[in-house]
Write a structure and sequence with these properties.
- The protein has about 100 residues and is mostly helical.
- It is built from four helices and two strands, in the order H-H-H-H-E-E.
- Strands 1-2 form a two-stranded antiparallel ribbon.
- Strand 1 (about 90) and strand 2 form a beta hairpin.
- Keywords: Membrane, Transmembrane, Transmembrane helix.
- This is Mitochondrial pyruvate carrier.
- It comes from Acorus calamus.
Length: about 100
């Protein structure tokens, strides 16, 4: 996931993801690309939550690919609306700001 954002960040669980997000926040960067990057952490947790709910309440088998697609769509949408990026793309397994 970190490589999709162009970050040198690795984590193995949700707590590691949260810690990675806090490190990025501490840098204090307020640029569009930084705000866009900050949208990644909530997008991942949101996708995990939706996947969990579908499995628990609808009996849908969780698939990593479906969860990742939810992350991609959320990040693209939130990057435009929350970070002020003119357009967000996903090319060659990386997010790009146009």
């Amino acid at each position: 996931m970190g490589s999709a954002m162009g970050m040198d960040v690795s984590f193995s669980d949700v707590q590691g993801l949260w810690e990675a997000g806090k490190k990025m926040r501490r840098r204090g960067d307020r640029s569009v690309s930084a705000k866009f990057t900050f949208s990644f952490i909530p997008a991942v947790t949101w996708a995990i939550w939706l996947t969990r709910n579908q499995a628990l309440f609808r009996g849908v088998s969780p698939y990593v690919e479906n969860t990742w697609n939810t992350v991609i769509h959320s990040v693209k949408d939130w990057g435009v609306h929350c970070a002020g990026a003119p357009r967000v793309g996903y090319v060659n397994e990386r997010f790009v700001l146009d």
